[in-house]
Amino acid sequence: MTTPLLTICVANFQGQEVITRCLESVFDQRCDFSYEVLVHDDASTDESRKIVTRGFPAARLIIADDNLGFCISNNRMAKAARGEFLLLLNNDTRLHPGSLQTLVDAARADLQSGIWSLPQYSMHSGELLDRGMDIDLFANPIPVKLPRPEVAMVMGSCLLLRRSLWDELGGFPEWFGSIAEDMYLCHRVRLRGLKIRVTNSGGYDHEVGHSFGGGKVLGNRLASSYRRRQLSELNKSRVIVTCFPGALPWMILLFHFPLLLLEGIVMSVSERSLKPLRTVYLPSLCGILRDVPRLRRERLRCMQRRCISLLEFLQPIRLTHHKLTMLLRHGLPSLS
Fold first, then answer.
1. Mapping DSSP to helix (H, G, I), strand (E, B) and coil, where does residue 110 land?
2. What is the per-residue DSSP string for 186-200?
3. Which end of the chain has the lower number of beta carbons within 10 A, N or C?
């Protein structure tokens, strides 16, 4: 059997409405290299597993008995992969024609890059969502719209890297569960002195918010879910502690924690309910304190073989508070 150059890893949970569109766009790609497709079904109870087995027999299906989350799903697929490159692809995405060739050609031609992605477009409107992301000091992603030679991170919905680099870094931290694991991985790669890049051509459509709800602007108002917000705030704080070099994390957290608490109070007053504070913000803050021993060990691991200075790390990081900017522009988010 020919060893594929690329392994495409599709994590699936309750994806019966989207998985066909995703896999059709994958198998319709025309490439001058071979690739394999793995689908990890995370204990779905809908028809998505049958859709994969009946409609896409060329895809290798890995079945979980319990719901494990995005990190473990991708770690399992990476372990089973045979390709030189890994492409992590959400089940709610659709590759544009020719994009797989564009993506792999770019990665093969550039040894200075660690992670590559494609321009991301809205599944429904066709609007360009980003060409990768910068982040602010509080680990809030900021969409980049114009072509750039380097960004701070790309979304895990379409993320390509060499399998050898994935293995070297140890993949995703499984205790993240889901959300911000892509930010963690991109920072680990940047700390090694490698670049995060996005192609100028090609692209993929993404139905943002399908898995966790929210994560987008609806009717000029931010929309999110309690679960997404809780995981996001907790895991972004974990990224700051583990991946930001020098004394930067401790200086940021002095402002970050009081601001999170204030945000929780404001959200609870706005909702006339303690639910935002009780289910999102206090668990996030307590989770970081509870995680201190594990975060200390992870930080030591992340800083091993660090190849860039603090100033180099800060280059794609904006000295603003993006969440505050979004709040001023769109008002407080609605939570569901």
1. coil
2. HHHHHHTT-EEEE-S
3. N
Partners of residue 86 on adjacent β-strands: 7, 161
pTM over 0.85: yes
DSSP state of 280: I
Helix (H, G, I), strand (E, B) or coil at 68: coil
Longest dimension (CA), the chain: 61
The predicted pLDDT at position 323 comes to 83
Beta-sheet pairing, 158-162 with 85-90: antiparallel
Give all strands (DSSP E) within 26-80, no chain letters. Answer: 35-41, 60-63
Q: Dihedral through CA 82, CA 84, CA 85, CA 90, nearest 10? A: 0
Amino acid at 138: F
Q: How far is 330 from 235, CA to CA, in rounded Å?
A: 24
H-assigned helices in 57-146? 70-80, 99-109
Band of residue 85 on the pLDDT scale cut at 50, 70, 90: very high
Residues paired with 161 in a beta bridge: 86
| Percent of the chain's residues with pLDDT above 70 | 95
Per residue in 254-293, pLDDT tens? 999 999 999 999 999 988 999 999 999 999 999 999 999 9
Q: What is the pLDDT of residue 320?
A: 83
